[in-house]
Amino acid sequence: MPSAEPSAADALTNFSARTRLLIVAPHPDDETIANGLLIQQVRAAGGEVGIVLLTDGDNNPWPQRWVERRLYIGAGERRRWGARRRAELLQAMQRLGVPATALQQLHWPDLGVTSRLLSTHRAAVAALTTTITTFRPDIVVAPALGDRHPDHGSAHVLARLALTQMPSAPALLTYMVHGPQSGAPTLRLEGSSAEQAAKRFALSAHHSQLVLSGGRVQRLSGRAEQFSVVPRPDGGLPWRPPAVLHPWLRLSLVDAAGAHTWRWHEAPLQRSDAGGYQLSSRHGEPVASPRFARLSLAVPSPWIFDHWGWCEV
Questions:
Q1: Superfamily grouping for domain 14-227
Q2: Which DSSP string do the residues of 38-103 spell out, in sequence order?
Q3: Model pTM greater than 0.85?
Q4: Would you kindly state where each structural domain of the chain is located, as residue ranges?
Q5: Which of 54, 119, 219, 254 could form a disulfide with 259 if both were Cys (CB 3.0 to 4.6 A apart)?
């Protein structure tokens, strides 16, 4: 009796020579920290791995000041640092068995993925759609929506919108770097001792990220790699920001049609029966693509991570 065709779940967890995996990496080192074991297992099965790098990781001033013994970081210095980080990424890829030709680069500004999504929405989605289509993956892995680094959460939104542009979209799994790994993952990789050693060796190529934050980066990389399918949205907005912050809050709404941002008191919101907030009926109607909301504070801060971030509505 002939064997049954593999199910979609099997394709996500059992790799073969037909597997084509594309990793969406906001910065150099995300490919190793969150995906180093996954890359090795796909390659060991004979599959192909591609990486699309959204930014060069160039806006990284404190490690650059330490390594280069300088205080001033201008545009030229950032370009040089970005080139250094791209070289580190290529070395890490080589150590994981991935050729340099597997890398596609968008060269977006580091810490600028959110502004790229909100200000040049159509062009940003089209650029990522093109990279996915070029590689022809059957599995895409991208950052989780709840990742607190703004480039990561916005990378998730872009990946979701890009996949809606494809007539036959590949499966999507998400990974978490900056935030707790919660829930039951679809795929969890502990790795053999040899795979773990190879991952550590690849991570060591990212020397610029280890000089000041080596302990933190190694802890993140040392966790089991967990990949999840996208959960169903809850519907309402999860935030109840204090009234004292309302004058400085901004609400953004993004879907396939475009991106909009409002001041909190001008946003299309209404109170829910439970006392929270939800989009008003005009903006809460079903749409043909996923829809995402982001709450942010329009106040300069040295803290780069999102407090509220994104949710799907």
A1: LmbE-like (3.40.50.10320)
A2: HHHHHHHTT-EEEEEEEE-----HHHHHHHHT-S---HHHHHHHHHHHHHHHHHHHHHTT--GGGE
A3: yes
A4: 14-227, 243-312
A5: 254
